[in-house]
Amino acid sequence: MKGRNLLLALFIAGGISSMYSCGGGGNVFDSVADKNSTEACKFQVSQDLDKGRYDAVLNSACATHMDRGAAYFGKAGFDVNDVIDRLIEAGGKQNVNSIDTYVKDLIPDDVNEDTLKYLDNAIREYTLAAGENPQSQSLLESQQVQASAVRDARFYRSIVSMARGVATIKVVTPVSTTTAGTNARPLSCDINNNRIPDDIEALACALYVQHSVNLTSAATSGACNVRDNLSYNYSTTTDFTLSNRPGTYKGITVNISGTPTTGCGSEYRLLFYKRQDNTYRLAATNSRSNQVCSIGNQQWPCPIIRNNNPLDFVDTVSNSFVRMVDDIARSIASTNPDLRREIERIKQDACGPVNPNECTADEIRNYINRITRR
Ligand SMILES: [Ca+2]
Questions:
Q1: Alpha carbon of residue 26 to chain centroid
Q2: b vs e for 119-133, b when ≥16 Cβ sit within 10 Å of the residue's Cβ?
Q3: pLDDT digits (tens, 9 = 90+) for 6-46
Q4: What pLDDT shows up at residue 68?
């Protein structure tokens, strides 16, 4: 209930300030009528938020950026109180493997491109609520502002950022492309019997290739030495373009060794995009949908486009986790040590202790390899 009480406190504070600011000009009856209608409108917003009527909140004339942030987080499929409770619960335990729990239980299986869009919108609203410029990547520009509303906005932005980082991992986790695997539940296949979900191993392999292989425009193939001396074969295509999607791409196919079973194939496909410096990076793709992007007779997961560029997987996860820690450190939650400890541990586990401002492809690869088959 902590989150809701916070929202309520903000709502009351907002109501008080609007009482004082709306008084000028009209007669006293107009002023009372305005106050009543504004309060009724704000009450309606709080009711709509509680009841999950998120579109009504987003269409309301009196919803604040905080209200809109909560509505977008709800539309993405999350209950902020549930997320906070899980973080606090995990933060109180020392031996819990956070990524394993969060990627399976916190993020819905039907997470998709829209989920990421709503999470981005929630972050944008909380950024506006914190009085910061959403166009700026700087996390420090309003560091001096200490108003409680700013701390609250950062607190929620931290929670949403955590969800965004983990959701991105799950959205990109590929679906087996052989017919047998089409309907497999994410994280459920393990044809090589090593207890790591095969789809996660395929994602880890693509991260290994990004980190360790010098890709050129030509096709190539090799082995991913992912973990425990197990190796999987990968092959990449030559560069290609996709209709209606900006950018140059290169497909990577990962073959997990083992015998396909009902629902679980052996082949997984992901996508690299080519950057201006001619390096290849894993594209954030919309793997958890039936949508595919075709080139010739080959089918690939479709890249997610942001600002007319392919969305970068590693950067998205890295930025989410860095912002998550940066925000929690400067928010009201510093009074809750369990919550803060867990947020910091996620970042440390995901990104290693070396560089606090970046998570690399290799660090994220190691992190996701801790996920176990469900
Ligand atoms: Ca496996």
A1: 47
A2: bbbbbbbbbbbbebe
A3: 444 443 333 333 333 334 445 666 667 777 799 999 999 99
A4: 97
Interval between CA 196 and ligand 1 midpoint (Å): 4
The CA 137 to ligand 1 mean position distance, Å, reads 37
- Cα(356) to ligand 1 centroid in Å equals 31
Full-model pTM: 0.85
Which token pair is 39?
């309060």
Q: How does pLDDT run across 56-83, given as a tens digit for each residue? A: 999 999 999 999 999 999 999 998 888 9
CA of 172 to the centre of ligand 1 (A): 17
Distance 187 CA to ligand 1 centre (A): 9
d(Cα 187, Cα 176) in Å, to the nearest integer?
11
Distance 201 CA to ligand 1 centre (A): 6
Q: Give 346 Cα–ligand 1 centroid separation in angstroms.
A: 23
Q: Supply the DSSP string of 191-215, one letter for each residue.
A: TT-SSS-HHHHHHHHHHHHHHH---
Q: How far is the CA of 155 from the centre of ligand 1 (A)?
A: 37
∠ CA 82-121-307, nearest 5°, is 140
CA dist 358 and 43 (Å) reads 41
Residues 102/192, Cβ–Cβ less than 8 Å: no
How far is Cα of residue 19 from the mean position of the Cα atoms in its chain? 38
Asked if 168 and 116 touch (Cβ cutoff 8 Å), the reply is yes
Rounded to the nearest 5 percent, the helix, strand and coil shares of the chain are 50, 15, 35
What residues pack around ion ligand 1 (CB closer than 5 A)? Answer: 190, 192, 194, 196, 198
Which 3 state secondary structure label does DSSP give 243? coil
